[in-house]
Write the structure tokens for this entry.
Amino acid sequence: MHLEDLIESVTVNLLRLAVTELPMDVKDALQNAYDKERSPLGKIQLKAILENIKLAEERRAPICQDTGLISFYLKAGFQFRNLDEIEKILRKAVVRATAEIPLRPNAVDPFTGRNTNNNVGRYVPHIHWNIIKGDFLEITAVPKGGGTENMCTLRILKPAEGVLGLKKFVIESVVKAGGMPCPPTIIGVGIGGGADIAMELAKMALLRPLDKQHPDPVVVQLEQELLDAV
């Protein structure tokens, strides 16, 4: 098998895994939430989610009908062959995955309303590059988008507002979002830099396992305070 074909096949399988199987840390968190839930209605909803996860894995079908706007996070060694071809290969893999898995076609032109019907369009899928030493390629597929993106919020805080202002903004954003982003919700918070940097950090935060703490103890404390407040 040629390298290009291998990358394409691996990417299709990554997307299949991403939409049909949840990582163990997320499944454990959902089971824990079910065990601790006191509301009868909440318990019914969480039980339905857990059953849906099981069915998706058994039937190899997407967990949710909204399979998102796909992003790829790449770690690429500068010695890896054909780096200039990678984006073309990933787009080809998305077209194939859309037909084979299948994925719901979500790439719609914002001006004309035209759906490409293959999840590929301008800046879709979005590809984040990180060039490092070595001769390998690591691909992370993230099918997040659609309804959850509608709940994303951004605010440039004044310096005087400090951490208290940050906490207030996060809590207000969660309350305003309510049940619209398909709860239970995983919250990603990005802090610092320009607006584009903060938003990218917030999305990347969702890639961190739920049972893995931030390496900075100050951030760990802040995350716990935010969780308790939410």
Q: What stands out?
A: The chain has a mean pLDDT of 93. The first strand starts at residue 71 and ends at 77. Residues 8 and 92 are 7 Å apart (CA to CA).
